[in-house]
Request: fold
Amino acid sequence: DCDGILSRADVARVVCFATSTKRSEEILDKLMLKADKKGNGQLEYQDFIQWIYNIRLGKFSEDFNPSRILAATSPAALAALQEWFIKMDMNRSGTVEYSEYAVSCFMVDKDANPKTIEEDFDRMDIRGTGRVSWAA
Reply:
């Protein structure tokens, strides 16, 4: 719902999606215990990001072991990525322009770093056109 807070149910959906498994209360309990800094049963966006990725060290958290399966081979991941792409394509041009990407980033995280946004977009814009398309 884009409120910047993940409820336990939200986290459960992410875990099921990321691991392609059914909901495990044991895994969810462990995850919430480790990542829920305030102990209120919710993860704020920054807590979630810090749990996944250690910015200072520039690597994934030891608690987070991302799948090595390419998103392109996972129908669920592809569908989610395409849904995000469609949401970012605010003018419905079939491409995501830098401005649309930047606005989307700030909608998710009002404190997003403009330099990081630009660097991330540049990595996706392999043709250097200022636009990213869904099609290869």
